[in-house]
Amino acid sequence: MSELTARSERPVPEQLGSAELADRLEGFRVELTGYCYRMLGSAFEAEDAVQETMVRAWRAYERFEHRSSLRSWLYRIATNTCLDALNGRERRARPVEMGPAGGAEPVLGPALGEDVWVEPFPDARALPGSGDPAEEVALRDSVRLAFVAALQHLAPRQRAVLILREVLAWRAAEVAELLGTSVASVNSALQRARATLAAAGDLGATEPLRPGDSRQQELLRRYVSAFESYDLEALTALLREDATLSMPPYALWLQGAPDICSWMLGPGHGCRGSVLVPVAANGSAAFGQYRPAPGGGFEPWALQVVEVRGGRISALNSFLDTARLFPLFGLPADPRRAR
């Protein structure tokens, strides 16, 4: 059992005052948010689900009989909240799942609704610090865009089983109690979920951010330098041959350095002169991108999530919904305020 889990499983007094109960519930917010984000694939829906969980827990606490830990009880409420939210909904996806890569003359097409995409999420709001570097790398790995997108291929209850069993390391009996089913049913659901993920191929395996990895940090430093100077030759040298560029809310995506560079010199030429401000999203390096504004200065343009595999950049994900995403990541309207 990890130190984080051990702290969370401390016995709960039979009666807590309002302030004490509020503090105890709030102590679970980050890990519950990470759980709901993996379930829902949406930063904003995850935070709404956790808030609803807190409200339900507050209202029902007098009926909580302490037969399980407070943590288990909260996860049961959060799971039911997520299952309710997922009822009848289409799964979220990434542009690489929406159709083939754009060709020699790609067309951006219409912007699609925010409910279509797997959204990025700040690490600090979804990953509780454990003090164990290996555990923190494993947690970052479990919120990668590729993994969260792969989870969306699972039926909701299978999704819950796989996250609880393989990400959070719950025992089968604990998951069975939470879902009100049998251990055999949990094990069967886990097997089916594993098979589905294997077929999905994790939608492009990537590596989580490792702040202590000097080679990975040097790669990211070179990326920032190449992008801000708009040195596409230097940028190309950092990309894998099969690297992708996507720009939600548009379904268009590009693959390969030639097509990516052609886009950046053509329709995307307005990114020349951009400034990047580092943040952390989905266990990966990420940046707030600010483009030069027509009247001078800079304007928010994209939340970039940079995925890495095999020592090179495998995907550039530029989420263009800055009106919602920049406040979520604590990014200011003017990059000079962040530096």
UniProtKB/TrEMBL annotation:
SUPFAM superfamilies named among the record's database cross-references: NTF2-like, Sigma2 domain of RNA polymerase sigma factors, Sigma3 and sigma4 domains of RNA polymerase sigma factors
Source species, domain of life: Bacteria
Pfam family, one: SnoaL_2
Occurrences of domain SnoaL-like (ranges): 220-314
Domain RNA polymerase sigma-70 region, chain residue ranges per copy: 31-91
Keywords assigned by UniProt, alphabetized: Sigma factor, Transcription, Transcription regulation
Gene3D superfamilies linked to this entry: 1.10.1740.10, 3.10.450.50, Winged helix-like DNA-binding domain superfamily/Winged helix DNA-binding domain
RNA polymerase sigma factor 70 region 4 type domain boundaries: 145-197
GO biological process: DNA-templated transcription initiation
GO molecular function: DNA binding; sigma factor activity
The keyword Heme is assigned to this record: no
Assembly, per entry: Interacts transiently with the RNA polymerase catalytic core formed by RpoA, RpoB, RpoC and RpoZ (2 alpha, 1 beta, 1 beta' and 1 omega subunit) to form the RNA polymerase holoenzyme that can initiate transcription.
Similarity field: Belongs to the sigma-70 factor family. ECF subfamily.
PANTHER family recorded: ECF RNA POLYMERASE SIGMA FACTOR SIGG, RNA POLYMERASE ECF-TYPE SIGMA FACTO
Protein name (Swiss-Prot/TrEMBL): Sigma-70 family RNA polymerase sigma factor
